[in-house]
Design brief:
alpha+beta, five-stranded antiparallel sheet, 1 helix, about 50% strand
Length: about 80
């Protein structure tokens, strides 16, 4: 019984500790225009390094759209 309590307490401590180190992101919306079309982008970047995309990404050009996911600046998953 003592081992179970120790395991539960350790798991809770690890969970709380990891939540404190979550990376904060901010949402960015870009509108890129030229003579022929407009691209509307929406994505998230890390607050401490805005060069790195993190999280969902979407872009729309007229009736076409693209959606995907970024992890630490790299495309992941299905696009």
């Amino acid at each position: 019984m003592l081992q179970l309590k120790t395991l539960l307490l350790g798991s809770c401590f690890c969970l709380i500790f990891n939540l404190g180190y979550a990376q904060e992101v901010k949402t960015v919306s870009n509108k890129l225009k030229n003579d022929y079309f407009t691209i509307n982008e929406k994505f998230s970047v890390l607050k401490d390094n805005p060069e790195i995309k993190q999280g969902p990404y979407s872009a729309r050009i007229s009736s076409s759209s693209e959606k995907g996911q970024y992890e630490q600046g790299y495309k992941t998953g299905v696009w």
